[in-house]
Amino acid sequence: MSGSAAPLPEHAAHSYFHPPYITLAHLFHAPRLWGFPSRVLSSYQFQYVVEGAAEYTIEGRAIPTRRGDLIYHAPAQAHEVRTFPDEKYVCISILFDFGDVPYPVEELLGTDRYVGNFAGHAVEQLLTRLIARYHQPGLANHAVCQGLLMQILSEVADYKQEQASQTTGQQKIKTKMVLIRNHIAEHYDRDIKHAELEALSGLSRNYIIVKFRKAFGMTPFDYLTRVRIERAKELGILTNMSIGEIALRVGYADVHTFGRMFKRKTGASFSQFCSAMVT
Fold first, then answer.
1. CB 55 within 8 A of CB 81
2. Burial of 8: CB neighbours in 10 Å, binned 0-12, 13-18, 19+
3. CA distance 78 to 81
4. Strands 89-97 vs 61-66: parallel, antiparallel or unpaired
């Protein structure tokens, strides 16, 4: 066969990539007025805002972040962060690298260090699962975490491609759906009505339901229930609050309604869930 093949891109010359090595994965509750001056890491880092707000400065660019926002830092990239006086800040932080084999992370995530808002998205669920698994002993859990991180990279890449292919009109509607999702995520602890979402977005009730389901795979009030469940799980694991106190904190007037909802959605009672996490 005559002629020579075109040279492969540098990363394509490898038949496989090393799996990601996760060196840190935790849920971080920042103390009041927390922050740090400019620093440089040797690894990649994901930071996902679970609650509150903070401002990152990455190579001179200020990036304000709130609930659901995901950013990433590349190796050898200067960045700093500061929290706000009247805002708490809780984030998922994951440090990872790929050994000596360069992995084309920017092909997947792009060059913008603000990746997007993933409140209620599959990426949020994968990040939460990774954190829970990372602190469990055993090689099997280690392998699961590596797989979850690769799923996160894949989901984010799909999200970025979808965003890039949307028309201006589609992007405007998606922006309004994100606005509604963020509003629900921030106000999950009170009674939210359809009229409130209509006033917020300028769209009709039925249109919101259709477009929200298309964007996120569920209705706005299914999402509200999911947010309440996830927040209840966090409170059950991280605090000593009673079930009744947690029910009120996440927006339910009585513990019986909360208990029925939790079991219907998860298949286990809240007490069973908490006991399983402790053991």
1. yes
2. exposed
3. 11
4. unpaired
CB 54 within 8 A of CB 61: no
Q: How far apart are CA 44 and CA 95, in angstroms?
A: 6
The angle formed by the CA atoms of residues 91, 94 and 95, to the nearest 5 degrees, is: 140
Beta strands in the chain (DSSP E): 21-29, 35-39, 44-58, 61-66, 69-73, 79-83, 89-97, 114-117
Does residue 207 sit in helix, strand or coil? Answer: helix
Contact present, 24 and 93 (Cβ < 8 Å): yes
Q: What is the DSSP letter of 12?
A: G
d(CA 177, CA 197): 10
Question: What number is the average pLDDT over the span 13-37?
Answer: 80
Q: In angstroms, what is the C-alpha Rg of the chain?
A: 21
158-211 pLDDT, tens digit each:
888 877 777 777 778 888 998 999 899 889 999 999 999 999 999 999 999 999
In order of start, what are the domains of the chain with their CATH numbers? 13-164 (2.60.120.280), 168-278 (1.10.10.60)
